[in-house]
UniProtKB/TrEMBL annotation:
This is NAD-dependent dehydratase. InterPro entries: NAD(P)-bd_dom_sf, PRISE-like_Rossmann-fold. The lineage of its organism: Bacteria, Pseudomonadati, Pseudomonadota, Alphaproteobacteria, Rhodospirillales. Residues 66-357 form the PRISE-like Rossmann-fold domain.
């Protein structure tokens, strides 16, 4: 039986990697985004997830066996995040319901399941690390919970199986993505190299000295495919990380070396993080535009490449974050990705596509 997928958010970090994998594996893939894409070998579906009626009309002819929800919309408050993102998930699942073809829905959320939403990120009483799936929800409003509840309700109504995937910070290529540490650091390193500015770590002492992990988008794509096609993984939530752990004081030097830089001494020991990227890069948009013109880069808009606010949120956390993968390992998912190689692969891809020099 031919597998057919609807990838929601196909131009994002996760959707792009997942669509590429599914096409390579012989799936028929419809890729939904706000702007049509002819890349990745998918059938483009253009729709606004907040236009419920328009979405229903657009998805009427799409008959997927699997739906993968790989997108979200950032709002000003968590209450609005809950309203908008919960509605978008319901709208997609309502729109594909009439066809009666959906057998599995995969939802990508993240470690804010354990760390809390941006309004209360890394604060209050948090679960012990390493984070494990059985630690449950925090007693705080969180749009990830609203997305999960929308999937659970539709599954109970329509009879499909589901999986929830909770990656740590994702490394992958996407332009115009709201949460994109890898490309943000690549743009920052490029600016430091071209201007002679010091390559300062922008985060907290805890992140500099403590242990952490990350998630390669390609590994996450493999995990989504595995969970959607492995009966033992049906109707479960999973953490998804690369499988290695590191300290940023080591990784920062690795990234600096790739760009031909010397890492600046870490100077935030007493101030708890004094050089956030949002401050360091606040006036860099004209500089990047000029750099793009001079070096022939394809994206002159720095805001479409870098999301300093999100990188600051991750690197400024006051707690060590390590994620447990035992649940997936016990069920047979054993894929591994070295995180420094994930960064280097991304940087090479960005260079090949003329997004960085």
């Amino acid at each position: 039986m031919t597998q057919s997928a609807l990838v929601v958010g196909v131009t994002g970090i996760v959707g792009r990697a997942l669509a590429s994998l599914l096409v390579k594996e012989g799936w028929q893939v419809a890729g939904l985004s706000r702007h049509a894409t002819t890349q990745l070998g998918v059938t483009p579906v253009t729709a606004d997830l907040r236009d419920v009626d328009g979405l229903a009309r657009t998805l009427a002819p799409v008959r997927p066996s699997h739906v993968f929800l790989c997108t979200w919309s950032r709002q000003a408050t968590e209450a609005e995040n809950i309203r908008v993102n919960g509605t978008m998930v319901r709208a997609v699942l309502d729109a594909v319901r009439p066809a009666g073809t959906v057998r599995h829905v995969g939802l990508v959320t993240g470690l804010k399941h354990y760390l809390g939403p941006f309004e209360a990120y890394g604060k209050g009483t948090l679960p012990q690390t390493p984070f494990r799936e059985d630690q449950g929800r925090l007693d705080v409003d969180n749009f990830y919970y609203a997305q999960e509840d929308a999937v659970f309700a539709a599954a109970a109504r329509d009879g499909f199986r589901w999986s929830v995937h909770r990656p740590h910070t994702i490394i992958g290529q996407a332009v115009g993505n709201a949460m994109n540490m890898g490309t943000t650091l690549a743009a920052y390193a490029t600016l430091c190299r071209e201007t002679g500015r010091p390559f300062h770590f922008p985060g907290s002492p805890v992140q500099w000295h403590g242990l952490t992990d990350m998630t390669d988008a390609r590994l996450l794509a493999r995990h989504l495919l595995w969970a959607a096609t492995t009966p033992g993984a049906f109707d479960q939530a999973f953490n998804v990380v690369n499988g290695d752990i590191f300290r940023w004081k080591w990784m920062w030097a690795r990234i600096a070396q790739w760009f031909g830089l010397e890492p600046a001494p870490f100077t935030a020991e007493d101030a708890g993080g004094i050089l956030p990227l949002e401050r360091q890069m606040a006036d860099d948009a004209p500089l990047w535009a000029a750099l793009a013109r001079r070096l022939g880069l394809v994206e002159p808009d720095l805001a479409r490449l870098a999301s300093p606010w999100h990188t600051d949120a991750d690197l400024g956390r006051p707690i060590e974050v390590v994620t447990d993968m035992s649940k997936s390992r016990r069920l047979g998912f054993t894929a591994y990705q070295a995180t420094d190689d994930a960064f280097f692969d991304l940087f090479g891809e960005l260079r090949a596509h003329r997004l960085i020099p």
